[in-house]
Specification:
phosphopantetheine, PKS_NRPS_Biosynth_Enz, two-stranded antiparallel sheet, Peroxisomal Thiolase, Chain A, domain 1, mainly beta, 9% helix, 2 helices
């Protein structure tokens, strides 16, 4: 495992409940659900210092003896269970915080400027109802609430964004945008073990 900006929070239900035998895996799953519900990690009971024989080099995790805040209001948690008879299981869950100061609040949809989804063709962002492609530079909020569509498609096909739609319009036209916006783009990947960014070069096709 490579270095991470934020370490993996490591905990165990056994420090709270001891070994649950047949229900040990379920106890770990319930603990993960509770952690995501509050979006915090409870301490490992009676953990004060790491065994010097345990080598943590190259393993970016944190084993804490105190309550930790995860720093966001949504996230993932996973639990592994290894049975004595050789049966292994793994569960990964996602949830948003429902309790505490990181609780996800109710949103007034009438005051949202844009609700976006992914275009299934180009994977770009598009508005939820009008399917207009979301520009790289959003206009300043108007403060008047939900944004209204300014064009209507003739074929009534709103499956793809306006960049991928090649039909005509009954009313209005989508906002044109330069396909190559100004600015510098960077990328990193497995060829550098995700350690550093590299500038992407513009390649013009004839």
């Amino acid at each position: 495992m490579k270095d991470r900006k934020v370490p993996i929070m490591k905990t165990s239900a056994k420090s709270n409940l001891a070994h649950g035998e047949a229900n040990a895996g379920m106890a770990g799953l319930v603990k993960c659900v509770l952690m995501l519900n509050h979006h915090s990690v409870p301490p490992n009971v009676h953990f004060y210092c790491l065994n010097p024989h345990v080598d943590m080099n190259g393993y970016p995790c944190q084993i804490s003896g105190e309550l930790l805040d995860l720093g966001s209001n949504t996230g993932y948690a996973g639990v592994s269970s290894f049975g004595f008879g050789g049966t292994n299981a793994r569960a990964d869950i996602w949830a948003k915080a429902h309790t505490g100061f990181r609780k996800v609040r109710q949103v007034d949809l009438n005051m949202l400027e844009n609700v976006t989804v992914r275009c299934p063709k180009c994977l770009g962002s598009m508005e939820w109802k009008s399917s207009d492609a979301v520009p790289s530079r959003l206009p300043k909020p108007t403060g008047q609430g939900r944004r209204r569509a300014h064009c209507v498609r003739e074929s009534d096909n709103y499956d793809f964004c306006s960049h991928c739609y090649d039909g005509s319009y009954l009313f209005g036209q989508p906002t044109p945008e330069d396909p190559m916006p100004a600015g510098t783009a960077y990328i990193k990947g497995s060829w550098t073990a995700f350690s550093e960014f590299e500038e992407m070069k513009v390649e013009e096709h004839l």
